[in-house]
Amino acid sequence: MIRLRQLAPWALLLVFTCCQNASPGLWDAGLEKKADLLMRVEHEEPRCFAEGMRDLTCFWDEADGGTPHLYRFTYTYENEESNECVVESQQREGSETRYFCKLLKVQLFGLLDIRVYRGETLLYNRNLLINLVFLLDPPANLTVTRTGKPGQLKLSWLPPPLKYMENSMMYEVSCTTAGSRMEKVVQGNTEFTLRSLRPGTEYAIQVRVKPDGLTYDGYWSDWTLPISMRTLPDDADPLILSFSVIISFILVLLSLTIFLSYRRFLIKKMWPLIPSPENKFPGLFTVYGGNFQEWLGHSSGGLWQRPGFFYLEELPVMLEVLSEATMSPPVQIQPGDSRAPGLLKETTQENEDEMLPKADSGMEKKWDPDLQENWLMDQFQVLQQSSTPPSQSSLLESKDAYVTLSQNFDQHPGEGKLEDISEESLPLHVLFGTTETSTSHPDLGSLPQSSGSSQLSSQSSFEYPHNTWPSKSLTYACLTMADSGISTDYSSISSSRTGMECIYTNDYKNQMPKERQPLATPPTHTGCWVQEQHNSSPT
Amino acid sequence: IFHTTVSDRRFVAVLLMVLQWTRLGLPSPLRPICDPRVLDRFIKEARDTEFAMVRVCSEGCSLAEPLSVPLTSVDFAIWEKGDVSEQAQEVQSGLWLLAQAISAVRVSITSTALHSLLDNSHSNIHSIGQVIRSLNFPEYTPPADGTVHEDTWRVSSTLELFRVHTNFLRGKVRLLLSHAPACRRDST
Fold this sequence. Notes:
The complex is a heterodimer.
Chain A: H1 2-22, H2 29-41, E1 47-49, E2 56-62, E3 71-77, E4 82-85, E5 88-91, E6 97-103, E7 111-118, E8 121-129, E9 134-135, E10 140-146, E11 153-158, E12 169-177, E13 180-187, E14 191-194, E15 202-211, E16 218-219, E17 227-230, H3 237-261, H4 263-270, H5 292-298, H6 300-305, E18 321-322, H7 349-362, H8 374-385, H9 392-397, H10 414-424, H11 434-440, E19 474-479, E20 481-482, E21 506-507, E22 527-532
Chain B: H1 6-22, H2 36-56, E1 62-70, H3 76-81, H4 84-108, H5 112-134, E2 152-157, H6 158-178, H7 181-187
Helix pairs in contact in B: 2-5, 2-6, 4-5, 4-6
């Protein structure tokens, strides 16, 4: 009996220590890790977390040297009696002590009222729902595999082994490479494929888990241990290379095509053509080496060939007028009787000079200054002077005669000039055909065939209104002019007689009166002038 | 123009009686609704209503008179050993209590925004009842004499009420539906 009584305190002591130790408060490394994690995110004391469906762990830190018996931990479920949990302590570095309490039978979805007393004072009071404070273990069995494609990795892991929470989890995947870290949240699935990674680089993959927050909620778990995997190197390099080669080839072809099509344009821009007068002076540079005098001397005949070159001044024109008995009134030709009336042959420049002033006197001053052969008109006026007033109007009145000259008015609109002439009542209208003369008259061999500058126009006839010119006399004057430098513009005189009996071609040089501006292009023309005079009887 | 003879009408009447008797004309049973997303949506809306109530009722919005609400706490160890049909009855009676409580609260709340939320919660509770019925659980008939189930308690504020509402759906209702025999039979 006495032994039992003596043993009693020892037994009590034993029980007491056993009970102390029996409380499941073993603070292992895992709990330590979770507690440290929670310290960073949760600030309400005491910090509590549930690891599974059947436990709750609460802890708080104090710096009082480790006296757990001072503390009292009470918890009360909704509508139930309060319970007490035995507080345990864990010594930490320094004077810090971690006090904790773990509940083994828990109820979820019901409000839990937790109170911590130190002695008699209420230290902490917290209401929480246990289903909202989950802190799970990190997912297990994380495996990382390469898919067939570069820049992709396939991950898979196991979900937390909690019975009623299978579909209530969300995960976060983190892939770290040198210097950069990427995190992605995955809902529900326990496998994931990382895309758009850099090929041929090493990545460290980690996963963590948390309840999705709808029915269950909590804190992010710790990261799994990183698993490194190298992504496949980019196998598209040869593909990209071939593409770039093809595209550059196409671009080169395009640029070549454009260059060739615009070659002339480009060359013109790069090396502009400097105009040179060589084409107007044949042989000047090539044969005579630029010696103009020589070239002039040797190519006097060439003047005929290049009448346009001489165009700056009046071109001398040889005029031969053949007129037989048609010209009954003596043609008052100044040069004198040596010239048969109406016959003007080889009029020299001197004669022209004499004739011209007279002609001028009789003429209206409204000659188109562009006419090179205005002087011819003067001649005819002179011829007419005996019979008719030496006025253009009288000449015009002889309707029966008309002369057509092939004309080139390439510098001046011929039609306009002709109209002007008609207004001015120019006397003559010369009609002829150049082709005819050129073939039938050997004299035309020396006809100055106009160069490119002068254009031999085809037959052009300009007929003026006949009725404006009352016929008075008819005088035929046949004049063949092969004049490369003269373009005439004569008003037409209608003639009932179109007797082109005499067609002569002559080369003639005419000196145009200074005041008259010659036409730009000297045509070659032959033709007959037929003039009607009152008093004459035409042959 | 439809002329029926006396003999035709008699025949139709007899036919209808026979059908009623043999219950051939009964409506076909509902397909079991086993998708967890259905209830998850109701839980989400209940949570949003609770948060809205927290924003409005900073002081707690105490009720004029306490309302009976079901208990929400779940001990998994006990729940797993429990009888499914009993649990179904418990869930349905709890839902019925919540519907009553929400209707009572709606009268005293003036905000129209909260009215819409309360109406939504009420209709959701009815929808959950239909889901439970689709799972072939025996239907719950509320007691006519007004006595309540034993697992109830009384709340005195609207915040408490809606917290109870949300957690009842999260806990007992969800557990009942996710492990309903009708769904398990289909899946396994």
